[in-house]
Write a structure and sequence with these properties.
214 residues, 12-stranded antiparallel β-barrel, Porin, mainly beta, single chain
Length: 214
């Protein structure tokens, strides 16, 4: 099934270009340092790539990420995301999406329904609220995030989230440096309330681009 969806998604790209939609994409490379074991480790997705087509708020995205060796025999994850995003006149942003997750060995794994709100609190500070529901394991999560622009190139990100099944609380703190309009470097600290866990630091270099648009 995932190959059918992949083929359908790729087949839409030439049509998308003729329909004057916005075609964008990006790639990233990441590595992590485990503060619990004081050692270098593989990032959750060492390499990743995505392509997205969007018009009038409706979008479709294909995302691919390589998996750490601990996920063997799976080596690649593929996500198929369909959604709609808009911003109201008062500055409130709304993003509704359906995301299906696939692995190269078993195929379809699960899917999520996701709703996100975003709002610019000031010219430099933005806030977000995201709620997701896993349709297979019937688990939900809630995340609250903040993004603060220190300068034109430096920004800080913070996030706190909780999951319904484990009732665990997790949090993230990141700093991003925009090298150019397309290239950015991010350092992200992640931790949760699990006893004995000292957290993880991930270093990511990303490149995002736009191929065409209105």
């Amino acid at each position: 099934m995932k190959y059918i969806l992949l083929g359908a998604g790729l087949a839409m790209l030439p049509f998308a270009a003729t329909a004057q939609v916005t075609i964008s994409g990006g790639a990233a490379v990441a590595t992590s340092y485990d503060l619990t074991t004081d050692s270098n480790t593989e990032a959750e997705y060492p390499l990743s790539f995505y392509m997205q087509a969007e018009k009038n708020g409706f979008y479709g995205q294909l995302w691919f990420g390589t998996l750490p060796s601990g996920f063997a025999p799976d080596k690649v994850e593929m996500d198929v995301i369909l959604g709609y995003a808009t911003e109201f006149s008062n500055g409130l942003g709304l993003d509704l999406s359906y995301a299906a997750y696939f692995f190269d060995d078993p195929g379809y794994a699960t899917a999520e329904l996701i709703a996100a709100l975003s709002y610019g609190l000031t010219d430099s500070l933005g806030g977000s609220l995201e709620v997701g529901y896993d349709v297979e394991i019937e688990e939900s999560y809630v995340e609250v995030g903040l993004d603060y622009a220190l300068t034109d190139v430096w920004s800080l990100q913070g996030l706190v989230g909780t999951e319904s099944l484990t009732e665990s609380v997790y949090y993230e703190l990141g700093v991003t440096y925009a090298i150019t309009d397309e290239v950015a470097f991010n350092i992200l600290y992640e931790d949760d309330d699990t006893t004995g866990n000292d957290g993880l630091i991930t270093f990511t270099m990303s490149y995002d681009f736009t191929l065409s648009g209105n």
